[in-house]
Write a structure and sequence with these properties.
The protein is mostly helical and about 150 residues long. It has six helices and no strands. The structure holds protoporphyrin IX containing FE.
């Protein structure tokens, strides 16, 4: 199995980076969709429209991309024996935070679709920066592999 994965390593890595971009793009879009929904009153047609858009973003892009990034990332780590590498431990810690952020934000959008307004526009703009900050450190860890 390890040999098979090693022979297709570049396909794994290409797919990993492609779906990482889809995942991060979705995580950048979702808080902004929440901000647009704030312009619409609970129960209004405008709210329903944004709830539908968020639902599609979640099910068509965000969640499938996250799962594919994890599967391809773990496959690469297994193929090249990276599980004992300190940089991957640090990277996985940051990616677990990113995954937790994904789950939490999805939960907030479901509350908003029910007419709740748990987050202010200011908070949404601030938390919208979280994936970008994590991305910087994850990419530096992967390319420099400092430990
Ligand atoms: C979800 C769990 C993840 C695991 C287990 C994982 C694991 C890995 C592994 C083992 C490699 C190959 C390193 C090498 O061959 O030198 C890799 C490459 C990479 N990963 Fe991940 N990764 C994960 C998530 C992410 C995320 C969330 C990002 C970005 C936010 C990311 C960005 C990258 C990049 C940019 C590369 C380098 C590709 C290259 O060498 O050109 N990974 N990852």
């Amino acid at each position: 199995m390890q040999e098979l994965l090693s022979s297709i390593y570049l396909f794994l890595k290409s797919g990993h980076v492609i779906f990482m971009v889809f995942w991060l793009a979705g995580l950048f879009m979702l808080p902004r969709q929440c901000i647009y929904m704030l312009d619409h009153a609970p129960g209004s047609p405008g709210e329903a429209k944004w709830a539908e858009r968020m639902g599609k973003l979640r099910t068509i892009i965000l969640t499938p991309a996250m799962i594919i990034v994890w599967v391809l990332g773990l496959s690469m780590a297994y193929a090249h024996g990276h599980f004992s590498s300190g940089w991957l431990h640090a990277k996985l810690t940051l990616v677990l935070v990113l995954t937790g952020y994904h789950g939490w934000l999805v939960g907030q959008t479901k509350k908003m679709a029910r007419g709740e307004r748990p987050l202010s526009e200011k908070t949404l703009r601030m938390i919208g920066e979280v994936p970008g900050i994590l991305l910087i450190f994850v990419v530096l860890l992967v390319y420099f592999q400092p430990f």
